[in-house]
Amino acid sequence: MAVNKNGIVVLGAVFVDIKGFPEDVYIPDGRNAGKVEYVHGGVSRNVVEDIANIELRPTFLGIVDNSALGEEVIHKLQRHKVNTEYMQTVPGGMGTWLAVFDHNGDVAGSISQRPDLTPILTILEEKGDEIISQCDSVVIEVDMDKEIVKKVVLLCEKYNKKLYGVVSNMSIAMERRDFLQKFDCFICNQQEAGMFFSNDYNDKTPDEMQAILADCLKHANISSMVVTMGGQGAVFADKNGLRGFCPARSVQVKDTTGAGDSFCAGVASGLTYGNTLEEAVAIGTRLAASVITSSENVCPRFLPAELGITEQV
Predict the structure, then answer these.
(1) Signal peptide span per the entry (predicted)?
(2) pLDDT band for position 264 (50/70/90)?
(3) Angle formed at CA 109 by CA 107 and CA 113, multiple of 5 degrees
(4) Nearest Cα to 268, choosing from 138, 135, 131?
(5) What is the C-alpha end-to-end distance of the chain, expressed in Å?
(6) 313 falls in which pLDDT band (50, 70, 90)?
(7) In whole angstroms, what is the distance from residue 92 CA to residue 81 CA?
């Protein structure tokens, strides 16, 4: 498995996650005793650390603020062997995600404050050719600023690089539908897929969701898509009629935060290094299962071969 200098390049925001866990059954309108944790977060930040944790040496193109916490974000990524040479430090460079969890480990409510990501466009204008030409693939939050997404799409076309999309805000991502026709795969959850295709899929079975997804992709001219369905697993399809389902692994759930991000990391890593879409979804499913059993936002360490990512001839 040959990895270029920049490996998989991930673009997106860094967040500080403030998470509250109740000691007992969560009461929505009551006073709940428990504990509060501060964790480095953000979809793309989590994704890049997950990729690093399977020893694939990715590059992160993001920004942090000029504080001790911002420095710690960079230092932690470096400890996990993420290439941070293109990261920038600017005032207010990080967002905040505040969430309260119920006794089942699910999010009971949350509020997020998104940072200004426009400095990333400056980095792309100055060093985009260098970054993308020396990478294996690109993962980007589709709901980033439109000009950033457009620039990344053009660079990936120029250097013939695979492009994968993740999402943190589907309401914004829906405004990027034309760009998604240029992506190799888009990953989201069942509710987000309903928003994207202007329908309600919450009561659909995996079999029904496969058929719906395959038909939607054909008409929308989107190459491929993976939709997670919580405890049921994930379905996948492409515009040529391929479709399938991967069941979720049976594990004890502690905290679901980061599970979708690790799933995305697994899918993107598998597809980048030669696995089929079905195999890549299985890799994502295993990484997601490893995250939800702890309060960490990212997966533990794996070797690529453990996940079926092997050298491609």
Answers:
(1) none
(2) very high
(3) 110
(4) 138
(5) 8
(6) very low
(7) 25
